[in-house]
Amino acid sequence: MDICMFYFGVLVLITNYISLTTSTPLFNLTTDQYSLTVLKNSIVSDPNAILHTNWSIHTPICGWIGISCGTKHQRVTALNLSSFNLRGTIPPHLGNVSFLRVIDISSNTFTGVLPSELSKLRRLEVINVAANNFSGEIPSSFGDLSQLRHMDMSDNVFSGRIPSSLFNISRLQNLNMSFNTLDGNIPEEIGGLSSLERVSLQNNRLRGTIPYAVFNISSLISVIFAYNMLSGKLPNNICSNTPRLREFTVLRNQFDGEIPRNIGKCKELQLLQLQYNNFSGDIPSEIGSLSMLQGLFLLENQFKGRIPKQVGNLTSLLYLMLQENHLTGRIPKQVGNLTSLLFLMLQENHLTGTPSVPS
Question: Which domains, ranges and CATH numbers included, belong to the chain?
Fold first, then answer.
């Protein structure tokens, strides 16, 4: 009897040891599988039966379509369901797939709100939910996603203010929230995005001015704030600290005042779109320093004075659109230097002379 009890005790110890040493990976794998199964069950339309036929609990999760796993732990690291023509909602359980680095569910018909539980995905580097029908506010807790580099929320129905907490994500390089119904001001805290390269907030209902801090981000390449209700003057530091800026687009707003003269410091600028605003004053001669500029769109503003002859230095220019302003004087002969020009629009001004357009 004693010998039997001894072996029984040893067996219990061995069983407990095995359970302890294997429970974590088994639990994690089961968590990933369960969470994604809940996501599958939240899909109300899968017309191509992609998930219905492929996402089976009887097959390894790392073989599921749209799923990528890490080689070391076999944990789910990427979810890519882009353009699967899916319709449904995103369950909070997705926030339990803790090794996720990439979520791309763009170009589907997902609805409802984005669950705040996604902020638990502290390894997340990419979240792309563009071209869906998500609504409600963008969760402020997304500011906890400290590893995030790419956030695309464009082409949805998000509303409310842009959470200032998002601007704590110092690694963020690309931020796209265009084509929503966001309102309020652009938060001053945007200057905290010290790695930001591209930001697009176009086609929303944003008001107020462009924060001065935007142009303290030296990594900026593209700024697109078009089709909003932004107003006031452009920050006078627009090109002082942004040597890499290639695109600045703020068309269809309510800006006024003059173009800051330090615009000439943006040596890599290729596209400047200020049309359909209330800008006034002279076109600064410093624009002639933008040797890489391909598109200069200043139409339908209140600019006055002469066209600066320095425009003739813009030998890369393809589009020179100055129509519907209050420009006066003779058209400078230096326009003839623009040998790459495809479109020249000067009508609805008070100009004299005939442009010397290169053949």
Answer: 1-99 (3.80.10.10), 100-352 (3.80.10.10)
